[in-house]
Specification:
The chain has 578 residues and is mostly helical. 74% of the residues lie in helices and 1% in strands.
Length: 578
Amino acid sequence: MSQLDENLPKQVAITIAGSGSTSNKLAKSEEQRHESSDTSNSNSNQPVDFETAIDTAGFGLFNILLILVAIPSAMGTVYETSTMSYILPSAECDLRLSLLDKGVLNAITYAGMISSAIFWGYIADTMGRRKVLIFGYLADSICVLGGALSQNVVQLMIFKFLGGFTMSGPFAVLMTYLTELHSRQYRQRIMMMVGIMFSMATLSLPGLAMGILPQIWDYQILGLTVHSWQIFVAVTALPSILSCSLFPFFPESPKFLMSRGRNEEALEAFRFIYALNRRRPRSAFPIKELASEVAAKPKEPKEEDTVKMPEQKATAVDVAVDVQLASKPKSSLRSGLLQLRPLFVKPYLGLSLWVYLLNFCVLLGQNTMRLWLPQLFASINDYEQLMSNKSEYNGTSICKIIEYSVNRTQSQLDASVLDDPDNQCTVNVSPSSYTNNLIVAAAGLVAYMLAGFLVNLVGFKRIMSLGLFTAGSCAIGMYFSSSSASTVALASIFVTMGSISSTSVISASLNMFPTALRTMIVSLSMMVGRMGSLVGNIFFPALMGLGCIEPFLMVSFFMFFACLLASFLPVKNKAALK
């Protein structure tokens, strides 16, 4: 749901902030620095660690190609979780949707993600990042196309659940994969760039909706009825198809390979990166040997040794996990339990619980508001068209919109169920219905560009705290909104600050845990966060039925509580990958 140094090469930096000339000069100095580093490394045959090797491989064409491929990957992730919120106004007659059905459709994807979080985390940390990206996006493409052919709400819910099940892995692994293929100097900026990619994806989605959903398209294909909203869903499968086609051309994460004791394969991956970045043959890579990250074990570890892990020191926990995973590749269940165990004992227990609770609060507020905004904006558009010629019209307060949305959804459901020719269910969707969504998405993209330059100055912790406090204030401020313009402005700030904060939480998590636990902690924290998204999207429509202020109080409370948790998060501004 998760980040640009002034030293970033011109191809990226000029797009992000327009500081082309400065970036060009710094890029040249960076290249000269690496030239001297290459010479010094070639004079020594001593084994080097991961950070030294990735620094020597440099930043260049490989990294830019990787960032370009990550764009459709981020789009696929956003599309999987967000398409339902855009089709609700268009599909409510075809699918006979109640207010609760709309909440379930928004939430069902997260239920699928929750159910597969541990599975994907284990697969990624034992079988590799690259395989998860390839097969995960392939499976997601199939699920999205299946959802596009759904003929009723139950079929659509099943495919959205399966889509969430498959997307949970690629989402977490994409973050880890990008982090592990960049040096420490660029790592935090790359994570902010992931946030920019998500903002670009969020910006493109209402654009697609504006072009497709207002169309009156009804086709019969092999006995199946296909409407414009189904074509819209099918089009959103394209980024996942593109991603699973391009990732086979990239290497496995060398950090993962080193953590598994496969140093020769890791060295070959470094040579591949070096050759693309420096325009030199692979044999010119000055590093000839990598340091072992898997401790040698003189004796076969006994079962009781691993049971006593809570009494060992932190370093012993890390080593025990890597040794066990490397030495027992055939025992999948045993390896998976060994991989999970350190997260539930000291020294990582308290820290992991902290991250889980923080992500729960952030994603509950962020994804609940984000996924209900298209419905609220569509209701604003309908209400303004309905009341524009009436004398009693005196503004568009959010309370009037909520009341109108609840009543209209119920009347539409009654009309579709009764099938009365005098009271038919009608869909009123126009391109202007999605204009406000474009404004919110554009505001998020601009804010991410600015945040990329601030993150090195203030760090993730301050960005998280400030963003969450601002989002909480905007949520409660929406209750007092008396016009559509003020509602859109507050919603834009809320979604922007919430998105930056949620991406920062993931980035901080990657820096606080060792390699053997990294994807697992991201998967588990995202699983708990998606529980928040699930709970929020179910309770939001229920609270809408109770009154106006209740749904906004819920969102605001969780964002303020997350701000408090983020303020005391023990994270450093820069950290080496453990």
